[in-house]
């Protein structure tokens, strides 16, 4: 991964405070409700319109009722686009008794390690495919050589049969 792209992607995003609505139903995922407002032009007034986001919780450290800070991150799945930054206020179990929430640097290091492993696997697969392709090319060459020899043998047999037929015709003509 290019370092300038990583640096650009590491720009700090805004933190959005929210409350964990459901936790423990999906692995590494919690639903967080964040506040929002909607303008009603008819009444000329803002009304509350909370939004719910599916948030990536790598260590399953959040519980229902926790107040957390989330931020937009890279897309983890079809609907998960946010990641937990920190726990602002725990609801039930103290923070010390839970698995820690990974920092941004830890998440980036893990993502870069996964990318490096994936690139390595792809390189191995590509090298194996190239070796297989070269093996097929050499076998095709051998098949071509074999086909050429077979064609030469058939041509020689055809010439022999023609000569025999000519000899028979001459022998018949002489009789």
TrEMBL record:
The lineage of its organism: Eukaryota, Fungi, Dikarya, Ascomycota, Pezizomycotina. Signal peptide: none annotated. Belongs to the universal ribosomal protein uS17 family. It holds the Pfam family Ribosomal_S17. Keywords: Ribonucleoprotein, Ribosomal protein. Gene3D superfamilies: Nucleic acid-binding proteins (2.40.50.140). It comes from the Eukaryota. Residues 153-175 are annotated as: Disordered. Residues 155-175 have a biased composition (Basic and acidic residues). InterPro entries: NA-bd_OB-fold (IPR012340), Ribosomal_uS17 (IPR000266). This is Uncharacterized protein.
